[in-house]
Structures are given as C-alpha cells and as structure tokens.
Amino acid sequence: xxFRHLVLGTDTYIPLKNRKWTKYIxxxxxATTPPFKSVMEAINYFAPWYSSIHRGTGYKSIVSTELxxxxxxxxxxxxxxxxxxxxxxxxKNTTEAINKLSNRLCKDDKCVVLSTSMEHHSNDLPxxxxxxxxxxxxxxxxxxxxxxxxxxxxxxxxxxKLVTVTGASNVTGYINxxxxxxxxxxxNGAMILVDGAQLVPHKKINMDGYSSYDQIDxxxxxxxxxxxxxxxxxxxxxxxxxxxxxPDYKGGGTVKLVSRDFVIWDDPPSKDEAGTPNLMGVLAxxxxxxxxxxxxxxxxxxxxxxxxxxxxxxxxxxxxxxLYCNDTSNKVAIIPFNVRGIYHEKVxxxxxxxxxIGVRSGCFCAQPYVQRLLKINKDDIEKFRxxxxxxxxxxxxxxxxxxxxxxxxDCLIWALRKIKNR
Length: 422
Ligand code: PMP
Fold this sequence. Notes:
Helices cover about 35% and strands about 15% of the residues. The chain is built from 12 helices and 17 strands. The strands form 5 sheets. Strands 4-10-9-8-7-5-6 form a 7-stranded mixed beta sheet, sandwiched between helices. Strands 13-14-17-16 form a 4-stranded antiparallel beta sheet, covered by helices on one side. Helix 5 links the parallel strand 7 and strand 8. Helix 8 runs parallel beside helix 12 and helix 9 crosses helix 12. The chain binds 4'-deoxy-4'-aminopyridoxal-5'-phosphate. 4'-deoxy-4'-aminopyridoxal-5'-phosphate binds next to helix 3.
C-alpha cells in the first residue's frame, strides 16, 4: 500500500549540515500534514470563481455561496453526524472551535466542565477561569480513566455541563473511548466535546454513535492536520444548541435584522461565522475529505497502524531509547521517546541536520500531561515557574501520516543508532 503519490512535496530534497542533499522525511504530521495534490488542484480550479459569498447577486457570488453551503453536508457526513439536526460551523482551527464553544457553553460561572489530564493546551486553557474545571486522571501510561470519570460525575451530582476530551492524544497517540465517555456523560446530564484534531485524519468517526446515549455532541478539528491548508477547521454540534444565545463574535453575516434598538440573529451556522468566510479554505477542506474518503478511512487506519507497530518494534530494540509505556494498542501512529543521556532538543536537531528527518521535541503544547509522563515533581515545576526560560525536560515525538513508508522508518532507526553510539 502506498499513498505517497497523493501528497504534495514527498520528493523534496533538502541540504544537510555536511552539504549533501537528501530526501526530506517528515515525521511531524501531528503538527501539520502536507497537502494532498487534489487539494491544490481544487484551489487552482476554483480560484477563478473566488467571490464574496452570501452577499452578492452576481453569478460568481452565487456559485461561491452554493459551493460553500453544500460543503457543510459533506463534512457532516464524513464525521457521521445527523445532517438534519447538526450543523458545521467553519472556524480557523481546532483552537478557535474550542474557544468558540467555551464562549457559548453557559453564562453561569457555576457550570462544571470536566477536562482530562491528557489534553492539548487548546482543550484545557479555554475552560479555565470561566467555569469550575476538574481534570479526569490518566493511568501511569497516560491512558484515560473511565473509573475516574464516573467518580467525578458522581461527585458533581449532575452539575457537569460538559465533558471535554481529546479523541486521540497528540503526545502518546492513545485513542479515547469517546462513545463510552459520551454514554456516561449523557446519563449524568452532561454533553461531550471531542477534540478531534488527532483523530479525524486517522480514524473513521461516527458522531451519531452506535447505541442510545453514546452520540458525540460536539466535535472540533483542523484542516491543516488532514492534508488541507492552514486557516480552516470546523466545530460541529447540534443546531438547537447554537440557536440559543448570542454569538461570541458579532458582525457582518450574523444577523437577520438590525435596527438601532434591536438585533435578530441569523440561524446557525451563519450566526456563528462573523465576517467574510474563508471560502477557499473550506473548498480545500472538502477536497481533502474527498480524497480521504476515496482512499478509505479504514485503510488509512490499518496502514498507519502497521507503521506504528513497525517503528515501535524497531525502536524497542535500540538500547538507550526510552519509550513511554510500550503499548501500541488503541493508538494513532504517534510515538514519544527519549534517547538516554541526550537532551531531546539536541536529538531532534541532529535528526534534522544530519539525516533530513523532521520530528518535534518538547512538550507538544500539553505540558501537564508530559510532566506527568516524565514524572516531574511539584518542586521541579516550581523551579521552572520561577524561571520559565530554563531548559525543561521533554520528549521527541514521531507522528506518521498515510504517505510515510517503512523505508523512512529504517532511515530513522539508522540515524538514531548513529546518534546514540557517538
Ligand atoms: N488539539 C490537539 C489534540 C492537537 O494536537 C492540536 C494541534 N497540535 C490542537 C488541539 C490545536 O490545533 P490547532 O493548532 O490547529 O488549533
């Protein structure tokens, strides 16, 4: 299986430190994926039709509006949402989607939001200081605890408004049991938001669920992690929810009627899309979804999982490579590790300069989670608080995309052996 030909820039040569040129290997897909060729073709194809949507009566404006509006159902279908009752609000990325929901969730500061100890900052910080926030614990390996969720739901006695959880961790790759979480949340009167940034590109999602109570209420994701460009993402949720209250951003496109004395807000999703929308971003996102569907999400999941298992197996045979809980079950293709005795940043830099391999190092915008996985104690955290610029412990992260190959993993293993034996 090889999907390489579908992706732009997979044959890019780059200069190394020794001035030799090599083919670039990108193992940083959890940060951003390169675009599909079909996405770039769609952008070129539609560019002549580029026109402001919703406002104009000109032909191009009508075509642009139609394309933009029709894309919503494609996106809803892609994530298995109920088209009649759900809506897709376009945003610039996952972070904006989550902030939007946090601004729209409830006006009562006694609302309780349950987040988890494994979240990206984008699904942690937007809830803080607005609501009562508590964190569901993970086990030593960083896996979600359903037991702790149950305990916390009982503790807050139906006061939890939302359980917000990542679909898959951007640090360890662990996939959360989102439908089981949804069921528990719903039975306790709460809704669920899934941060789908790391799940949507890698695994089929069915927001509608499989049995009663287990549907997903809200889903957030970013185009740039699923082979579309930067600047587009979606927040999906029930129309009924977004009909209520005022939008967080107000302005052009959000209203039905305005006088000096009153405002009648438009229906969702327009109400929550203030200003001129990102038409080309949305068209690019739908082109990416077309290609993902053509390949088939099940095939993508299966192929990426085989990359994960292969890389994990090979890494586990290198003395000095520290893997964090060597358990590859229920994971998207992400592997965090360290090389004993070498600072994570140095390893990442050497891989880039000497082997042309791009990875990420640090805490991946999930500092509390990484602190827990690395067993950093409170005193050390205090030390860093006094001096936030001190070099901090972290990890190196490999994250695979559907176009990566086993040969590329072999190159990585060769490069890591060289670094380690120095
Ligand atoms: N959540 C998770 C799990 C992520 O991995 C990321 C991106 N690293 C985000 C949220 C934020 O995504 P964006 O930067 O596209 O808003």
